[in-house]
Design brief:
Elements lengths: L20 E6 L4 E5 L1 H5 L7 E2 L6 E15 L11 E12 L2 E11 L2 H11 L3 E3 L1 E7 L2 E7 L1
Parallel strand pairs: 6-7
Antiparallel strand pairs: 1-4, 2-4, 3-5, 4-5, 5-6, 8-9
């Protein structure tokens, strides 16, 4: 039996409300490293339990490009609706519900970072990032 059962890739909107934003994700790369579970658990707040697989905890780095980021029914805004993002994350459960704990969400768009921190209470940070795509290879770099 798979210790991580298949789950929907998209969470339904809360309480039947429509999603607040629309967005597209491109060129995602999921990189994961096994980390001692006890060490990672100490970085989480009380009540947030580390989700493990076969006793291993994982720290993930996920770079990708966002496009079409805007409220529903609002057109793209040049310079604001497309930017690279890099997530540092792990997998958790809270009250038995699976989820993702974001240590940081880094983006090149400072206004997007500020709005996400303010309205969605997520740890977004403005950073310098580069995306280089040559042929079938996409390279990401990021620094604060």
């Amino acid at each position: 039996m798979d210790p991580w059962p298949r789950r929907p890739a998209v969470t339904p909107p809360a309480a039947g409300r429509p999603p607040a934003l629309r967005m597209e994700w491109h060129d995602l790369c999921f990189l994961h490293w096994a980390v001692p579970a006890q060490a990672l658990q100490r970085t989480l707040p009380r009540g947030v339990q580390l989700d493990t697989r076969a006793g291993e905890a994982y720290l993930g780095v996920v770079p990708f490009r966002m496009e079409g980021v805007a409220p529903l029914h609002v057109p793209d805004v040049p310079g604001l609706s497309a930017f690279p993002e890099l997530n540092l994350r792990t997998y958790v459960t809270v009250n038995g519900e699976p989820g993702v704990w974001f240590y940081s969400l880094d983006v090149t768009q400072p206004l997007a970072a500020a709005l996400a921190r303010t309205f969605f209470h997520l740890p977004y940070r403005h950073s310098r990032m580069w995306v280089d795509r040559q042929g079938g290879v996409t390279r990401y770099a990021s620094e604060l």
